[in-house]
Amino acid sequence: MVPLLRSCRRLIPHLSAAAAVAAPSSSCARPISRSLRLLPVVLAMAAYSSGSGAERRRLLFRQLFEKESSTYTYLLADVGDPEKPAVLIDPVDRTVDRDLNLIKELGLKLVYAMNTHVHADHVTGTGLIKTKLPGVKSVIAKSSKAKADHFIEHGDKIYFGNLFLEVRSTPGHTAGCVTYVTGDGDDQPSPRMAFTGDALLIRACGRTDFQGGSSDELYESVHSQIFTLPKDTLLYPGHDYKGFTVSTVEEEVAYNARLTKDKETFKTIMDNLNLAYPKMIDVAVPANLVCGIQDPPPSSV
Ligand SMILES: N[C@@H](CCC(=O)N[C@@H](CSS)C(=O)NCC(=O)O)C(=O)O
Which ranges carry the Metallo-beta-lactamase domain (predicted)? Predict the structure, then answer.
């Protein structure tokens, strides 16, 4: 396990360890009562703005969709910080202009363009974003063996303003998959939110038949790193092919069609998915290993 503050100091050099531990929460926090938080309308709103009191207002959250690959990109920002620092999780090259335009309209400062893993079905937008906004740093797991500015490991924290994402290693769909989880603490959004990439899809999960995939490992990853989160944790997948947008730990523990089974049954299900290979796999994987930008670009070779 990596010391929790190791990468927070590494990724945000201006933030001291002490400041990271004792990130101040606003004195004008007005907590929502527990009973109010149980009302369905408030739960529905949590998909767009998570947390209680000041922490809820600090987090700006958008779920964005790329329809050709059915990929979700997530935008999170700390709008309680004067600079409004933001992160993008799993941007797609085709929708980079849409995402950067939104970031500009909202007055955010994009700090990190992050991937949950080396995608096989689309080209990541992280390299293109870096060419358009040179200050932005790309982030991916060290275990992915891909190129990026920052390599994260299990237990690392990625700060944007006073908010942070905790890194949980969730291999199985690919060897280098991670899940990003909003911070645990009174000054962090509640309920927590987990960005699962392709480890966990709503009522399903990522396939395990290439890129170092392993159904055994995926089962362990989801059960140990995602299903152990608080049951009200909001789960945001990397894709959805059925029209779902968000789930919770409680829902998936009860209803996930694959991961509610015992491990041997799960492995049999995964061995018999019989899915066609992603159409773009031969282009996407080599491109994503170098942040989506090939050097020199394919057209000039
Ligand atoms: N048809 C799509 C690829 C669909 C696919 O294989 N999706 C992956 C995630 S992207 S590698 C997956 O894990 N699916 C699990 C499932 O149960 O569908 C294309 O050709 O791009």
Answer: 70-239
Look up the ipTM and state it: 0.99
Q: Is the CB of 242 under 6 A from ligand 1?
A: no
The β-bridge relationship of strands 234-237 and 193-197 is parallel
Tell the CATH topology of 6-10+40-279: Metallo-beta-lactamase; Chain A (3.60.15)
Q: What is the dihedral of CA 120, 280, 86, 173, to 10 degrees?
A: -20
Residues in the chain: 301
* pLDDT of res. 293: 78
* Beta-strand runs (E) in the chain: 59-66, 71-78, 85-89, 109-114, 137-141, 150-152, 157-160, 163-169, 178-182, 193-197, 200-201, 204-205, 234-237, 247-248
CA of 187 to the centre of ligand 1 (A): 37
pLDDT tens for each residue of 200-230: 999 999 999 999 999 999 999 999 999 999 9
Low-confidence ranges of the chain (pLDDT < 50): 1-49, 300-301
Atom of ligand 1 nearest to the CA of 207: 13
The predicted model scores a pTM of: 0.84
Decide: 285 in ligand 1 pocket, CB within 6 A: no
